[in-house]
């Protein structure tokens, strides 16, 4: 596991705005917190060994079988569990840059990376950190070229593009999907995710899963969230995606900044003078803004950083702060 994932607020004091986390700033978790405050007695008892109640609730939403769902301690737990279960396949493939844990998990369990022909192909869709989307046709082609296709859809609520549904993926037989309630509902501290796959695959994964991996409060939160309106409503995301393009266009007008195309509420950028680490420290110290230094993504360099769209006023201020940083560097050159 690499150091330097997004949202490393624990390394800093008080911040004015966190541009490093790609969780929507529009999510209001106060109703959930109020509910959990009334359910704290659940910490006095062991949780369900396999979170079956939450798996059943998820299955009903997607119209799949409860035996086609496995709840995990966040999406990262799902990644390592899948890598462990498929370790006999020996080889994996992934396109960089992407989330580092796919390669880290496979290497932990003895895989070798073969970029073109790995038996297990990992796909982040939408992709982190680029915001790139793979179409259904592209996904079908990948599934035909590899023994297993693992699709991490943790960021599926960060875009307006249609995603492959669990039912569609299950019918493909060799596709395993990872989903994140962390991203959807803005609850990263609770660590809650799930896998959807054919029942035979879920049975193999469950055989390797740790008992009581999902804590009682997380299960309570998951059940409550599924029974109430999703705070990450598509109308809210549509507004955020519009603001993302406004922010991207403003950044593109700054000499020395390159912004990569994105279909999500976050974007990958590069800076021509100085490094992402220097820009990050400048923004924290002078403006209280935190961005994601993306230089530790395999395939990227020390000039790359990722930002996620925030409130329009903060976005405007971020643009001017980055402009000021570059002007300072140019004056020193």
What distinguishing features does this structure have?
Aspartate Aminotransferase, domain 1, 40% helix, 2 domains, 12 helices, 4-stranded antiparallel β-sheet, 333 residues, alpha/beta
Question: Short summary of the structure?
Answer:
The protein is of the alpha/beta class. The protein contains twelve helices and 13 strands.
Can you walk me through this structure?
There is one protein chain. The protein has 333 residues and is α/β, with parallel strands linked by helices. It folds into two domains: 9-26 and 233-332, Aspartate Aminotransferase, domain 1 (Alpha-Beta Complex), CATH 3.90.1150.10; 41-227, Type I PLP-dependent aspartate aminotransferase-like (Major domain) (Aspartate Aminotransferase, domain 2), CATH 3.40.640.10. It contains twelve helices and 13 strands. The protein has helices at 30-37, 52-62, 75-85, 101-108, 136-145, 166-171, 181-185, 199-208, 216-227, 234-252, 276-287, 312-332; strands at residues 17-18, 69-72, 91-94, 112-113, 120-124, 148-152, 175-180, 193-196, 257-259, 266-271, 289-290, 292-293, 304-308. The longest helix is centred in the C-terminal third of the chain and has 21 residues, at 312-332. The protein is globular and about 60 Å long. The two termini are 37 Å apart.
């Amino acid at each position: 596991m690499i150091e330097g994932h997004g949202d490393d607020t624990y390394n800093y004091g008080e911040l004015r705005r966190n541009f490093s986390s790609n969780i929507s700033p529009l999510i209001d978790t106060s109703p959930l917190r109020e509910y959990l405050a009334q359910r704290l007695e659940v910490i006095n008892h062991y949780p369900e060994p396999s979170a079956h109640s939450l798996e059943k609730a998820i299955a009903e939403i997607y119209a799949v079988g409860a035996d086609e769902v496995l709840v995990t301690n966040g999406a990262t737990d799902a990644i390592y569990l899948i890598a462990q279960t498929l370790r006999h396949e020996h080889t994996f493939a992934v396109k960089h840059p992407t989330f580092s844990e796919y390669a880290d998990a496979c290497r932990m369990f003895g895989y070798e990376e073969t970029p073109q022909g790995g038996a297990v192909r990992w796909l982040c869709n939408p992709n982190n950190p680029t915001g790139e989307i793979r179409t259904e046709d592209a996904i079908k082609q990948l599934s035909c070229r590899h023994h297993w296709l693992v699709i991490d859809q943790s960021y599926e609520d960060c875009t307006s593009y249609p995603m492959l549904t669990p039912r569609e993926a299950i019918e493909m037989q060799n596709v395993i999907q990872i989903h994140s309630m962390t991203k959807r509902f803005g609850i990263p501290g609770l660590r809650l995710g799930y896998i959807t796959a054919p029942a035979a695959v879920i049975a193999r994964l469950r055989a390797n899963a740790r008992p009581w991996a999902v804590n009682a409060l997380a299960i309570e939160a998951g059940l409550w969230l599924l029974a109430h309106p999703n705070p990450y409503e598509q109308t809210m995301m549509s507004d955020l995606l519009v603001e993302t393009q406004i922010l991207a266009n403003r950044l593109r007008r700054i000499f020395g900044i390159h912004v990569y195309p994105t279909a999500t509420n976050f974007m990958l950028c590069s800076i021509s003078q100085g490094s992402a680490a220097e820009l990050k420290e400048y923004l924290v110290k002078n403006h209280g803004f935190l961005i994601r230094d993306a230089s530790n993504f395999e395939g990227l360099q020390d000039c790359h950083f990722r930002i996620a769209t925030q409130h329009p006023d903060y976005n405007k201020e971020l643009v001017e702060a980055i402009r000021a940083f570059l002007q300072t560097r140019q004056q020193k050159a």
